[in-house]
Automatic annotation (TrEMBL):
Transmembrane spans: 149-167, 179-199, 303-323, 329-349
Organism placement in taxonomy: Bacteria, Bacillati, Actinomycetota, Actinomycetes, Mycobacteriales
UniProt xrefs under PROSITE patterns: CYTOCHROME_B5_2
Sequence ranges of Pro residues compositional bias: 17-27
Matching InterPro entries: Cyt_B5-like_heme/steroid-bd, Cyt_B5-like_heme/steroid_sf, FA_desaturase_dom, Fatty_acid_desaturase
Entries under SUPFAM superfamilies matching the protein: Cytochrome b5-like heme/steroid binding domain
Keywords: Membrane, Transmembrane, Transmembrane helix
Protein name, per record: Fatty acid desaturase
Sequence ranges of Basic and acidic residues compositional bias: 7-16
Cytochrome b5 heme-binding domain boundaries: 32-89
Pfam families documented for this protein: Cyt-b5, FA_desaturase
Annotated region (Disordered), positions in chain: 1-27
Length: 490
């Protein structure tokens, strides 16, 4: 729950002092947990969940990350005591923008002040009650079976993914255009759903690091970068100012509404062709500057992520080249446009990202209850097992937010009864899943496609000026170019 006994440094006014405060000087390798400072640099390569999660969270408060992503956070707390710096955390220990790009946060954001403070040591809170029931042997065995079944389905989908494209390239008559487009939208969304769960899994083996990049198959993001913003910033701090996922998908709102679909489509096409490769090269440069050891522990620890990320990006480009050379570019283009837009709306369909953070504030001090109140489940065709893939893994979304470490959507479905029953004891109403097509999609159309541009709203411009002003046209050109240079919505 939210701590009421924070260290003295947190009870001071939330601003960074002009000079170093009294006491031990801060060091660059600092992680903050429960208000105390730690140096986990020696733990990066030892972390069972993978080096990335420790290296990427340097100079952040990892209290909620440890509490939410581990079955026994108390044991983790005892384990890291050997790395304690024997002092309370101070503002200089926390990077003001969480070591993430500044443009992802609102003006004035400061991670020391704006990161929600929760504690996870109350044995009677919702999360502890749920985890206690998950230890029941019969349920634990069932969850393992669900993970295995999920992986088998993913393997079948991967074969179908290449088979559908192969048939279309070999002879379009074997794979008519409408069938091809629908199949690619379904398969890309489904495999991206697997990538979504791969991001949450332990990333210790090289294969697991490669699989993370399956999320890129829906053209929406760069999984290598998204793993941080999604797993480490969005999930532990849902709908707070730290939740950069809320800000990423509203960037298209700077484009005038009539131009928004074509301009954003070209922006994402640019991402696919060159933008994300440029972004990956930027990540490579960053790793060289910071040092492989500080981010991955060893060069080998970094290999799977880089091989997988570059591999998937080259695969997406190779598909475009293959269809172009085969004289079937427009088939590729149609599946690209439909997949990209459907997937974009699916990604933001299970939260009220269009609502201001202040309006979504929850008074609860229980992290698990807060997660249930800030998320809802999604339905596409009405069958949870099918929707698990069609919704990119979001059919049992509330369970996923309370138990983000679970390895598959099938495991979340199998856990839903437990979470619902325990939630009822805490007075949390279990609302029915929302339909993507009849509920979320119409609302998203109004918000993301039909609302005036940000500049028009700020200046109270009319429809004509919104679309014909020189600054609006410049915005469109800049936004399009940014896609090809890797800047923008990721």
């Amino acid at each position: 729950m939210t701590t009421s006994d924070r260290p003295a440094t947190e009870e001071q006014e939330f601003r960074r002092p002009p000079g170093p405060p009294p006491g031990p000087p801060p060091v660059s390798n600092v992680w903050v947990y429960n208000g105390k400072a730690y140096d986990l640099s020696q733990w990066i390569s030892k972390h069972p969940g993978g080096e990335f999660f420790i290296g990427r969270t340097k100079n952040r408060d990892i209290t909620s990350i440890i509490g939410s992503y581990h079955k026994d956070p108390e044991r983790i707390g005892r384990m890291i005591e050997r790395y304690a710096l024997d002092r309370q955390a101070i503002p200089e220990d926390i990077h003001p923008k969480a070591n993430a790009p500044d443009f992802l946060f609102k003006e004035g954001f400061d991670s020391w002040r704006d990161t929600p403070k929760y504690r996870f040591d109350d044995k009677n809170d919702l999360l502890h009650q749920i985890k206690a029931r998950l230890k029941e042997p019969e349920l634990a065995v069932r969850l393992q079976r669900m993970d295995t079944l999920f992986n088998i389905v993913v393997a079948v989908l991967a074969v179908l993914y290449f088979a559908v494209q192969g048939l279309r390239l070999a002879d379009p008559n074997w794979m008519p255009l409408p069938v091809f487009v629908i199949a690619m939208v379904v398969l890309r969304s489904s495999l991206a759903g697997f990538g979504h769960y791969a991001i949450h899994r332990a990333q210790k083996t090289q294969l697991s690091k490669v699989f993370v990049n399956a999320f890129d198959l829906n053209y929406v993001a760069l999984a290598f970068v998204t793993a941080d913003g999604h797993a480490l910033l969005h999930h532990p701090h849902t709908q707070s100012e730290v939740d950069i996922k809320k800000n990423v998908f509203t960037m298209m709102m700077q484009v005038p509404r009539l131009y928004r679909i074509p301009v954003h489509t070209m922006h994402k096409f640019g991402h696919t062709v060159t933008g994300m490769l440029i972004r990956l090269l930027d990540v490579c440069r960053l790793v060289r500057q910071v040092g492989v050891r500080d981010m991955y522990g060893t060069r080998r620890g970094a290999m799977g992520h880089f091989v997988g990320s570059f591999g998937v990006r080259f695969l997406l480009i190779a598909e475009l080249v293959a269809f172009t050379l085969a004289g079937d570019f427009w088939a590729w283009a149609l599946q690209f446009v439909v997949t990209m837009w459907v997937s974009t709306f699916l990604v933001v369909a299970s939260h009220d990202f269009e609502v201001d953070t202040e309006e979504l504030h929850s008074d609860t001090e229980d992290w698990g209850v807060n997660q249930l109140e800030q998320a809802y489940d999604l339905t596409v065709v009405g069958n949870r097992w099918v929707d698990c893939f069609l919704s990119a893994g979001l059919s049992s979304h509330r369970v996923h937010h309370v138990l983000p470490y679970q390895r598959s959507g099938f495991a979340n479905i199998a856990t839903e009864d437990v979470v619902r029953e325990e939630a009822e004891k805490f007075g949390v109403e279990w609302l029915p899943a929302k339909s993507f097509f009849t509920d979320r999609f119409p609302k998203q159309i109004r918000t993301y496609l039909l609302s005036p541009s940000r500049e028009a709203e700020e200046n109270k411009w009319g429809f004509v000026r919104e679309h014909l002003s020189p600054s609006a046209l410049k915005t469109c050109a800049t936004y399009t170019a940014q896609g090809f240079t890797g800047i923008g919505t990721v």
